[in-house]
Amino acid sequence: MSSPSASSNELKTIVSNNKRRRDETLSPLGSAGPFFASSLTSSSFGLSSSLYMENLSMEIWKFYTSTKQSTLNYTKKLHLRNALHMVISGVFENAGLFIVGSSINGFGSHNSDMDMCLLVTSRNLHQKNEATFILSQLLPSLKKCRFLHNFRLIRAKIPIIKFHDRHSSVDCDLNVNNVIGVYNTHLLAMYAKVDWRVRPLGIFIKYWAQCLDIHDAQRGRLSTYSLLLMLIHYLQVGCSPPVLPNLQEKFPKLFNYNISLPYKLDMCYQLPWNELQSNNSLHLSELFIGFIDYYANRFDFNKWAISIRYTPSSSSSSSTSSSSTATACLLKTVAIKHSSMNANIVMPIRNCKIFIEEPFTQTNTARSIHSDNIVLSIKNAFINTYTVLCLQQPLESLWS
């Protein structure tokens, strides 16, 4: 992990390079001019606020470098996965074991749990019955491992075994055949590599959401996955020029839900990174403020769904106005229809408080949000943060 001084020097170099590119390519409206909707103009964030913007970029970067998952922790998790696979192979000979989620998709922190998917068959399992039975069959063998303890079998919609590894001090969650987690882990890992700003923003936004108590799917709030989809969606259609492309559109064979597992999804797969680079050279602070502005002022949660799969027309993503946002977004009614067809159920619109489309199954990753009060809290979190940023106040004033 980099020291704070090293992190500062590293970011200053990046900021300096970005500023040089900006001076060559962007109009002289100040550092914030090109990326705000009409409600937040260069008069709000002009030259006089350059110190505030730089400090905010530094805050985001330092938080990222001080909390991101270290190489050592990642290596420990890989060793633990290999040890577990040996144990599991004694019960299910040809089973595959995949690390999924933040431990491997690039958005992990130093205290991230390790989520794993056990693949025992190529067919879909009935999670409540079959998956629970498989986990109960596996549990006795896991309990024989002296390096594991604190076992709990959670009989949820997606049943899991929770346990703790004594050697690495890592908490683990193990599911069976919830393969969508493997696919979306691979997709997010590739998005994280397209642009260096994606990971710092993702980790900082998760922290921001935790501080404002809008992050925790188990309590009917936004999950980490939903927050990352919100960020990627904004970076695709909410800023100009877009920071991120639509990878599913550009590489349909690679990001294909019909690829059979245990086909190995390579997290180190090399895309043509240079071709995917954006001309957008906004700093971390500018993109963070743009993210807040997008969901505070421009995105209509009642009408639109958040989607990273849906591709707008080229003209609709070339502006940051509210009208262009409408044409760049998937209608909520359409998203609900797709989700209902895939899930083979009827999903009333009124039950979808916020719709964040899962990019492979097209289901709603925010389905745990049922309360109008929680929706209001989420909207207010964006609005209040936007106000604090406009006043150039510390973010800590929101939760201190």
From TrEMBL:
InterPro entries: MTPAP-like_central, NT_sf, PAP_assoc. Residues 56-192 form the Poly(A) RNA polymerase mitochondrial-like central palm domain. It comes from the Eukaryota. GO terms for cellular component: cytoplasm. GO terms for molecular function: metal ion binding; poly(A) RNA polymerase activity. It holds the Pfam family PAP_assoc. It is found in: Cytoplasm. Residues 1-17 have a biased composition (Polar residues). The keyword Transferase applies. This is PAP-associated domain-containing protein. One of its GO terms (biological process) is RNA 3'-end processing. Residues 284-364 form the PAP-associated domain. Residues 1-24 are annotated as: Disordered.
